[in-house]
Design brief:
This protein is mainly β and 357 residues long. It has a single domain, classed as Neuraminidase (6 Propeller), CATH 2.120.10. Helices cover 8% and strands 45% of the residues. The strands form 6 sheets. It has a 6-stranded mixed beta sheet. Strands 3, 24, 25, 26 and 27 form a 5-stranded antiparallel beta sheet that branches. A hairpin with a 4-residue loop joins strand 5 and strand 6. The longest helix is centred in the N-terminal third of the chain and has 13 residues. The protein is globular, with a radius of gyration of 20 Å. The two termini are 29 Å apart.
Length: 357
């Protein structure tokens, strides 16, 4: 009888707006935050400080779990995209494109012919006020993703830059040391055949930190590792702009890739893909890439595909919460304020799909 009473008290304590699991702090089922004129690109949950981090393309926001603004960084040079929070270093790692094309219009117009791609490394405990400037700021540093910059300028693999990022152990192993994974943006051009694989780069976060430097607005900071530790080609079929967001779920052992679906008729054109992180890659030639006949580290093929998922959220933000739970971003524009908003919803992976909590 005593155990039943305690269980009832615990359930009442969580309340209708909270969700909780054994060994996991309770979190709200929804969080609403408004940004500026650009839509949300990425989110990250900080369980230790009970905070959320948001990228609204040209600004970085810090809020509490009720959506109250605690701090922000503005005047960001380029397109700030997907994000992930590292508990060990208490830093957010985010993709940052300084790009001379339609995506960079109004954000990095000075980048004429000199598009470059970066990881922004944000020391969240140094974001102590609202509207901090990214320039010459210890809280906001950058490191060049030289591999993606090279492939973009060479026109290889449909590379349009970078976007999705996550932290996970090495692909092909169960557990172990964590690394940062960076995904390419991939042009959805249906007239070419070399753009049907998602490309993931693996980096040691300590190496990225070592090369990082402060932002000098209008300058092209070029310091960064010359090569990633690994470069993976994940055969998914066509997408539009590649992996927008990605995340690793420790509980299921899966890596999830969220995309804008493609348009080639020979593919199913899913919204998302997943594969077991312990899945062993193989070394072989690339499908549909006539100009590159060398062997690469590859996951998936026509005969052994990665799993496809139909799910309308994830492309504008996903963050693991723990115990198989995830926050997903739903974006829109508030007609009263004219500002873009992010409404987080809490979901659970049930082995087949994402289910709302």
């Amino acid at each position: 009888m005593k155990k039943i009473v305690l269980l009832i008290i615990a359930c009442l304590t969580l309340g209708p707006g909270m969700a909780g699991q054994a060994g996991h702090d309770s979190v709200p089922r929804e969080v609403y935050v408004e940004g500026g004129k650009h839509h949300v690109q990425g989110i990250a949950y900080d369980p230790d400080a009970s905070r959320m981090y948001f990228s609204f393309t040209d600004q970085f926001l810090v809020t509490d779990m009720k959506g109250n603004l605690l701090g922000s960084v503005r005047h960001i040079q380029g397109h700030l995209g997907a994000m992930v929070f590292d508990k060990e270093s208490r830093r957010v790692y985010a993709s940052l494109e300084c790009k001379d094309d339609v995506i960079g219009k109004g954000l990095s117009d000075f980048a004429k012919g000199r598009s470059m791609f970066y990881i922004a490394i944000i020391d969240v405990d140094k974001v102590t006020s609202i509207d901090m400037d990214s320039e010459d700021n210890e809280a906001f540093k950058i490191v060049c993703v030289r591999e993606a910059t090279k492939d973009y300028h060479s026109g290889f693999y449909g590379c349009s830059g970078i976007d999705g990022v996550t932290i996970a152990p090495k692909i092909g192993r169960k557990g172990g040391k964590n690394y940062l994974y960076v995904a390419y943006g991939i042009y959805g051009d249906s007239s070419r055949s070399d753009n049907d694989s998602q490309i993931l780069l693996r980096y040691d976060m300590r190496d990225l930190d070592k090369y990082s430097g402060k932002v000098r607005f209008g300058d092209f900071y070029s310091e960064g590792p010359s090569k990633p530790l690994d470069k993976y080609f994940v055969f998914t079929g066509n997408t539009n702009w590649g992996v927008q967001n990605m995340t690793y779920d420790k509980q299921s052992g899966k890596m999830f890739l969220f995309v804008y679906k493609g348009s080639k008729e020979q593919f199913t054109n899913y919204d998302a893909f997943s594969f077991d992180l312990s899945r062993k890659p193989v070394k072989r030639g690339l499908i549909g890439v006539s100009y590159d006949t060398s062997r690469h580290v590859v996951i998936g093929s026509w005969e052994d595909p990665v799993e496809g998922i139909f799910f309308k959220y994830g492309s504008t933000g996903v963050s693991p919460v723990g115990d198989g739970l995830f926050y997903f971003s739903a974006n829109g524009k508030n007609p009263s304020t004219g500002k873009q908003y992010c409404r987080l919803g809490l979901y659970r992976w049930d082995g087949k799909g994402f289910v709302r909590e």
